[in-house]
Specification:
It is a single chain. The chain is mainly beta. Among the domains are: 68 residues, no CATH class; 55 residues, no CATH class; 95 residues, no CATH class; 43 residues, no CATH class. The protein contains no helices and 31 strands. Strands 1-2-3-4 form a 4-stranded mixed sheet, with no helix packed on it. The radius of gyration is 45 Å and the shape is rod-shaped.
């Protein structure tokens, strides 16, 4: 049974139908297909001048929910589930939204007809795409509060973290520059690369003084530091050069330092030496000379086969085979002297030589020293000789 109201007193030219048998109500339709079907616009209001309209457009097949002021048609705010609950848009049949806003399909945030941000999710990827006015592609900004945390430039795709004007593909700008890392802190520096368990990390930073540092350390209260390995699987490492080379033929793990027109040097310090320019030790290539400097009042040591071979002490005494040289040259062991065929000269004074002169029937061997024999005369003087048949 249906009750049909056609009353000019209620709604002129409108129809209000109650289908009792199906439990349906139709407004402006004689065939309601749902519990309530309205053909036209629905206005919901509380007696004030602001209303909520639910309407469709016959020309574009669009449906809308619109809050506006009745007196001047001004658009007003519209709140969906203002007291809580989730909102779903374009969800399939039977799908209940599990988030505050759940959208199936693309979402478009539009500044005007020419500039908008479109978010599209598919099985392959999630895409953030913006559209400009044909001349300038707008940037994508990610903000927390009033601060811009991440920027993607629309003009070239450069990404900035802590900066809104990245000049290269990825630019990070730390807010708290530090000259050195703080061991055991997970908040130091401007960049971090963490292990999967989160306990270890590689941190990088730039100080206000222009120092750049990298540190591998624990990412918790443990203050342990760990090795940093360059090219662990092989390859050359260059400092001051973009084309490191190897003279040994075995390229793996080699370090090439190029100082340009200045020293090519490595400087070593520790907690005992201080960290100034005149502390510790330096191995340097100066012009065509290779020099080893010890700025401290200590020794320079050369060892081989786990044993000390040469020691140069703070008095510049040289010891070979001894760790405590007591003269400019202190040799613990034998000294072999070969022949010297040069003539006696000023630059040879003090030089020893050993000579063997075979003969018949006698053979001779000599130990000579070059000595000054006059104001400007020099000679090899025999010190020891041996004769045998």
């Amino acid at each position: 049974m249906a009750i049909n109201f056609l009353s000019d007193q209620l709604f002129p030219s409108d129809i209000f139908l109650v289908d009792v048998s199906l439990g349906r109500i139709g407004v402006n339709t004689l065939v309601p297909r749902t519990a309530l079907e309205v053909v036209g616009t629905i206005r919901v209001w509380s007696g004030s001048n602001t209303h909520t309209y639910v309407e469709t457009s016959s020309g574009s097949n669009l449906g809308s929910i619109q809050g506006k002021k009745n007196s001047d048609n001004a658009v007003k705010s519209l709140a969906l589930n203002p007291l809580g609950g989730n909102v779903g848009i374009n969800l399939g049949a039977g799908i209940i939204p599990s988030e505050a806003l759940q959208v199936q399909g693309s979402a478009k945030i539009q500044a005007d007809s020419n500039n908008f941000l479109k978010i599209t999710t598919s099985q392959a990827a999630t895409t953030f795409a913006n559209s400009g006015n044909g001349f300038v592609s707008p940037n994508i900004l990610f903000n927390t509060g009033t601060n811009t945390r991440l920027t993607i430039l629309g003009s070239n795709g450069n990404v900035g973290i802590g900066t809104t004007s990245p000049g290269v593909r990825l630019t990070t700008n730390t807010q708290t520059p530090s000259d050195s890392p703080t061991l055991g802190s997970g908040t130091v520096g401007g960049q971090a690369l963490l292990a999967s368990n989160g306990a270890y990390g590689q941190y990088s930073g730039v100080s206000n003084l222009g120092h750049v540092w990298h540190q591998v350390q624990r990412n918790d209260a443990n203050t342990a530091a760990y090795p940093m390995i360059f090219q662990p699987a092989g390859g050359l490492v260059g400092i001051g050069t973009i084309a490191p080379i190897s003279n040994g033929g075995a390229a793996a793990g080699l370090l090439h330092i190029n100082g340009g027109n200045t020293w090519a040097a490595t400087h070593y310090t520790n907690t005992f030496t201080g960290a100034g320019t005149s502390d510790g030790g330096v191995i340097a290539q100066i012009g065509t000379d290779l020099e080893i400097f010890n700025y401290e009042a200590g020794e320079i040591r050369l060892s081989t086969n786990s044993s000390r071979a040469i020691t140069i002490d703070s008095s510049q005494n040289v010891g070979i085979g001894t760790t405590s040289p007591r003269a400019k040259l202190d040799v613990a062991g034998g000294v072999k002297v070969a022949d010297d065929t040069d003539g006696a000269a000023l630059n040879k004074v003090g030089t020893l030589r050993y000579r063997y002169v075979p003969g018949s029937p006698k053979n001779f061997s000599y130990v000579d020293m070059c000595m000054q024999t006059g104001g400007s005369s020099y000679a090899w003087v025999n010190i020891v000789q041996n004769v045998w048949n």
